[in-house]
Amino acid sequence: MPYLKLSSKNQIVLPREARDAMKVKGGDELLVVVKGDITIIMPKPKQYSKTLSGKGKGIYPKDYLRKERSSW
């Protein structure tokens, strides 16, 4: 299992396996999300709208939005 070591300049080098899996290369921007004691590193999306498109699909039961809108 690959691991990281923090340098004296507070820098890290992502192992090749991680770079290949995330499809990133030198100069690409990454997002760092910290939730409690867990840190997630992921590629920064080129377009947030395209990345988030369809993520809510299947959350609501069928016809939920139609019934909700008709109640207004």
Question: What does this protein look like?
Answer:
This protein has one domain (16-70). With 72 residues, it is an alpha+beta fold. The protein has helices at 16-22, 48-52, 64-70, and strands spanning 30-35, 38-43. Strands 1-2 form a two-stranded antiparallel ribbon. A hairpin with a 2-residue loop joins strand 1 and strand 2 (38-43).
Query: Which stretches of 5+ consecutive residues score pLDDT under 50?
Result: none
Strand content: 15-25%
Number of helices: 3
Largest sheet: 2 strands, antiparallel
The number of distinct β-strands equals 2
Brief descriptors of the model:
72 residues, alpha+beta, two-stranded antiparallel ribbon, 3 helices, 2 strands
List the topology elements:
Blueprint: H1 16-22, E1 30-35, E2 38-43, H2 48-52, H3 64-70
Can you give me a brief rundown of this structure?
With 72 residues, the chain is α+β, with helices and mostly antiparallel strands. It is built from three helices and two strands; from the N terminus they run H-E-E-H-H. It has one domain (16-70).
